[in-house]
From TrEMBL:
It comes from the Eukaryota. It comes from Araneus ventricosus. This is Transposon Ty3-I Gag-Pol polyprotein. Residues 55-236 form the Reverse transcriptase domain. InterPro entries: DNA/RNA_pol_sf (IPR043502), Rev_trsase/Diguanyl_cyclase (IPR043128), RNA-dir_DNA_polymerase (IPR053134), RT_dom (IPR000477). Transmembrane segments: none annotated. One of its GO terms (biological process) is DNA biosynthetic process. The lineage of its organism: Eukaryota, Metazoa, Ecdysozoa, Arthropoda, Chelicerata.
Length: 249
C-alpha cells in the first residue's frame, strides 16, 4: 500500500491538524484545583511511563498551572488490566461552556452508504490528540500526579467539548476538499464507492488529504475495500441496510 507515512507507528505518533489552536472556554475564572488520587506502586509506575511518552511526543508539557485534575487508570480490555490513562475532568467539565456542533445524522449517513458497493473504514490514530490547544488554554487542561503537574498541548479525552470540536474539524476538512465519497463520525472516516476501481482512486485522494492535513491513521483498525461494512450498529451491503445481529440481544 502506498502513502505508508499516513499510518501511525504507535499511539503517540500522531499528527497535529493544520488548524487554528482550539479554545477551551469556561464559565468561571476560578481554577479547578484537586489533589492527586492515591495509587499503588505498580499503578504509579504505569502512569510515569505513559507521562514520559506523552512528554517525548510533545502532547503534554510540565506545568505550573493553578488548575489541577487528577489522573486515574482505567481497565483496558485488550490488555486485561488497568492501563488506560484517564484524567478525571468532571469538575472542569462542570465549568465548560457547551458546544452546539450537531452530531452527524445517522439516517443521512446510512442513506449515503446504502447507495455504494465498496467501503473502507479509516480510524484516526488517537484522534483527539491531533487537535492543538490554544496556548492561553493549555493551563486549564493541567493534570496532577503524585510526581508532578502537567498540562495538555493537544485535545485530551474526557473533556466535555472534545467530541464536538473534533467532529467539526474533520467535517470541515472533508468539506474543504469537496469530498462527496466519504463521511466522518468522530474518529472514523468511511470511504464509499460504486466500484472497486473508483474506490482505490477515492482512497488515494483521502490519503493525500491526510498527508496535507497532517492526519495519522491507525492501520490495525482500518478496513479496506469491503463489500459489507458495519457502521453505527448496522450492516450495509449491496444497497441493503440491516441491524447488526451482534447488537441484537
Amino acid at each position: 500500500m502506498t502513502n505508508a507515512q499516513v499510518f501511525s507507528k504507535d499511539k503517540y505518533d500522531v499528527g497535529a491538524l493544520r488548524v487554528e489552536p482550539q479554545r477551551i472556554v469556561l464559565n468561571s475564572d476560578l481554577p479547578v484545583s484537586l489533589r492527586p488520587y492515591r495509587t499503588s506502586p505498580v499503578e504509579e509506575q504505569e502512569i510515569k511511563s505513559q507521562v514520559e511518552k506523552l512528554l517525548q511526543a510533545g502532547l503534554i508539557k510540565e506545568s505550573n498551572s493553578p488548575y489541577s485534575s487528577p489522573v486515574t487508570l482505567a481497565f483496558k480490555r485488550d490488555e486485561g488490566k488497568k492501563t488506560r490513562l484517564c484524567i478525571d475532568f468532571r469538575k472542569l467539565n462542570a465549568l465548560c461552556k457547551s458546544d452546539s456542533e450537531p452530531l452527524p445524522l445517522m439516517d443521512s449517513l446510512l442513506d449515503k452508504l446504502s447507495k455504494a458497493k465498496i467501503f473502507s473504514s479509516l480510524d484516526l490514530a488517537s484522534g483527539y490528540w491531533h487537535v492543538p490547544i490554544h496556548p492561553k488554554d493549555t493551563e486549564k487542561l493541567a493534570f496532577c500526579t503524585n510526581f508532578g503537574l502537567y498540562e495538555w498541548c493537544r485535545l485530551p479525552f474526557g473533556i466535555k467539548v472534545a467530541p464536538a470540536i473534533f467532529n467539526r474539524l474533520i467535517r470541515r476538512i472533508l468539506t474543504k476538499y469537496k469530498i462527496d465519497f466519504a463521511c466522518n463520525y468522530f474518529d472514523d472516516i468511511i470511504v464509499y464507492s460504486s466500484s472497486e476501481l473508483e474506490h482505490w482512486k477515492h482512497l488515494k485522494t483521502i490519503f493525500e488529504i491526510c498527508e496535507k492535513e497532517n492526519i495519522k491513521l491507525k492501520l490495525s483498525k482500518c478496513v479496506f475495500a469491503q463489500t459489507k461494512i458495519s457502521f453505527l450498529g448496522y450492516e450495509i451491503e449491496q444497497g441493503k441496510v440491516s441491524p447488526n445481529n451482534a447488537n441484537i440481544e
